[in-house]
Amino acid sequence: MSKGTLFDKVWDLHTVGTLPSGLTQLFIGLHLIHEVTSPQAFAMLRERGLKVLFPHRTVATVDHIVPTDNQARPFADSVAEAMIQALEQNCQENNLTFYNIGSGNQGIVHVIAPEIGLTQPGMTIACGDSHTSSHGAFGAIAFGIGTSQVRDVLASQTLALAKLKVRKIEVNGTLNPGVYAKDVILHVIRTLGVKGGVGYAYEFAGTTFEQMNMEERMTVCNMAIEGGARCGYVNPDQVTYDYLKDRDFAPKGADWDQAVTWWESIKSDANAEYDDVIVFNAAEIPPTVTWGITPGQGIGIHQFIPKPEELAEEDRFVAEEAYRYMDLLPGQPIKGTKIDVCFIGSCTNGRISDLREAAKIAQGRRVAEGVKAFVVPGSERVKQAAEAEGLDKIFEAAGFEWREPGCSMCLAMNPDKLQGRQISASSSNRNFKGRQGSSSGRTLLMSPAMVATAAIKGEVSDVRDLL
User: Fold this and answer.
1) Could you tell me which of 419, 223, 431, 408 has the C-alpha nearest to residue 326?
2) What distances in angstroms separate CA 335 from CA 206, 338, 374, 461, one per listed residue?
3) Given this model, what pLDDT does residue 415 score?
4) Is the fold of 6-161 the same as that of 288-465?
5) pTM, whole model, 2 decimals?
6) Residue 284: what pLDDT?
7) Which of 202, 340, 403, 417 has the most CB atoms lying inside 10 A of its own CB?
8) Is 127 annotated as a binding residue?
9) Architecture of domain 6-161
10) In the chain, what are the domain boundaries?
11) What integer pLDDT is reported at residue 410 of this predicted model?
């Protein structure tokens, strides 16, 4: 009787061979590219006289450098304009599908692929972007890769990788009101650490994930990488199939029935053997906010910034650096921290369900004086859906700016940047020093509903007070 995990099954099915180095040569079913990590890869191909081996397996969009306030071409930023032109040319020369601005399908790469049905269970997916782990929500094995690996996939449709161990992260029970998928993954990373997942794939399992919709599962898998895991995934189930059915690239007719039968077969077996299992209770997870300079430095909304003596010895050095950089004191409450900028969006939390939750908080209220708050849909389809529901009007009436789709103030390779020492409540995924466009800017990660609450209150606040 099989005792395999989904990871093992998908890995074995995509193994081309074992290289002399001992690494696995793994076939990649879907290669997603954007404007940031692909130009150098295409240049390397040209230098070697190579072509893209399977053009139909590569799909491109533009997301990191696009301005979200005015997308008229040419872009005001000449570097951004050069990058989008390079992508346009590379896609044209290699006959690649490119979802450009105005195509109806442009957006953040990890938002558009699932919503048009490109992302499916049992696939191997690669993209030159660390948050490719998002696609694991569908029961795919998805890797973020570097530029030289982007070249390798373009040229050979394979990657050389070491096989990972599998850790099962089981969360059981129902989340309390005001606690969201973002809080779950921040809690997991806080508990296991930012290096806890090194060498592992994370399988997210348990009744809590079974109750989540696909967008919530994507939020969790998106940030598996922030816990040190190479990828994260959830086994496919009826929720997965209901989401995928009738999407543009989903199988149709008899092919659909055949696909579902196969997807069921690749799920982790009931008696699958894991390298490690860790169990959490959903009821114990609070609304969570990061206070420091790594996604692992998080606390519950009513907790206090930890004192050095409360931390493990290996965590104290980074904590001391975080106190200085964030200008926060050990023992002080995170609640009440003043906020300058509030950003709702990103590949973690820029989907329609994220915007709905934030709009519930914004409705009938006003952004606090002196706070700049803006909402950036994750794709053109998300923007269209939100506007059809009137969410844009709710946000604008409350004093939020409503923007065009893009990565915006996450990596901030566009005009959306923090200024100086501004402090941001952000629904994105990284709170590293300088992450949101200012070398001295400060980022607090939280759920979209918590960001909306901070915008209304002008300070870090408990979303449950406004629900």
Assistant:
1) 431
2) 31, 9, 21, 5
3) 87
4) yes
5) 0.97
6) 98
7) 202
8) no
9) 2-Layer Sandwich (3.30)
10) 6-161, 165-237+262-284, 288-465
11) 87
Give, rounded to a whole angstrom, the gap between the first and last alpha carbons of the chain.
49
Tens of pLDDT along 20-48? Answer: 999 999 999 999 999 998 999 999 999 99
Distance CA 307, CA 409 (A): 30
Q: Which CATH architecture has domain 165-237+262-284?
A: 3-Layer(aba) Sandwich (3.40)
Q: Is 410 annotated as a binding residue?
A: yes
The answer to whether the beta carbons of residues 446 and 358 sit under 8 Å apart is no
Is residue 200 within a helix (H) or strand (E), and if so which, with residue range?
Answer: strand 200-205
Instruction: Please return the burial class of 49, using the count of CB atoms within 10 Å of its CB with bins 0-12, 13-18 and 19+.
Output: exposed
The 10s digit of each residue's pLDDT in 452-464 is: 999 999 999 999 9
Rounded Cα distance between 65 and 68, Å, is: 9
Q: What is the C-alpha to C-alpha distance for residues 120 and 263, in angstroms, rounded to an integer?
A: 9
User: What is the biggest distance separating any 2 CA atoms in the chain, rounded to whole angstroms?
Assistant: 64
Long-range own/partner contacts, residues 208-212 (CB < 8 A, 24 or more apart): 208/171, 208/172, 208/173, 208/174, 208/175, 208/184, 208/280, 208/282, 209/171, 209/234, 210/237, 210/239, 211/174, 212/181, 212/239
Q: Where are the alpha helices (DSSP H) in 193-285?
A: 207-211, 214-222, 238-244, 254-265
Judged against a pLDDT cut of 90, whether residue 3 lies above it is answered with no
d(CA 109, CA 34): 7
Query: Taking a C-beta distance cutoff of 8 angstroms, is the pair 287, 300 a contact?
Result: yes
Q: State yes or no: 347 annotated in a binding site.
A: yes
Continuous segment of H or E residues that includes residue 93: helix 78-94
The two tokens of residue 369 are: 């004086």
Predicted local confidence at residue 353, as pLDDT: 98
Q: Beta-carbon neighbour count of residue 212 at 10 Å? A: 22
